[in-house]
């Protein structure tokens, strides 16, 4: 019976991945032969099993917590990637708008130059042309302000895009560390 108890204890230790000192097993077997106290031995084994079960539950809880953290970080990484893609699209849209504004500005400059030529050619239409030129100048200035505003906004988007890329890299590194730690 005692030998069966020792074998059961050994098996439980192997299952729980707890190393068993060989000397303790030998001493236990020798003591079993010299001291036939079965109840004490059973109680001791039951106590060890309970301790091992508690330790196993604790390890399982820590593993589950680590899995939850890894999942949260993976979700954060996906959200960051999504935001990064949105910012890239916004950046492309801003560049299109900037190019359109630049083209519009160039067209307005050309229109302005044409108006100046017509004004010089025709004194009779002078007053009308001055008003038209003034309107075009206002539009040109407004367009140039708009272009400057778009340039500033584009610069801000570039900075935000760089920051987001850095966060993606950090999150990716953190995720890799967690995966290495728990695999």
Automatic annotation (TrEMBL):
UniProt keyword Coiled coil, yes or no: yes
Coiled coil: 49-81, 112-146
Signal peptide stretch: 1-17
Highest rank taxon of the organism: Eukaryota
Keyword annotations: Coiled coil, Signal
UniProt name for this protein: Uncharacterized protein
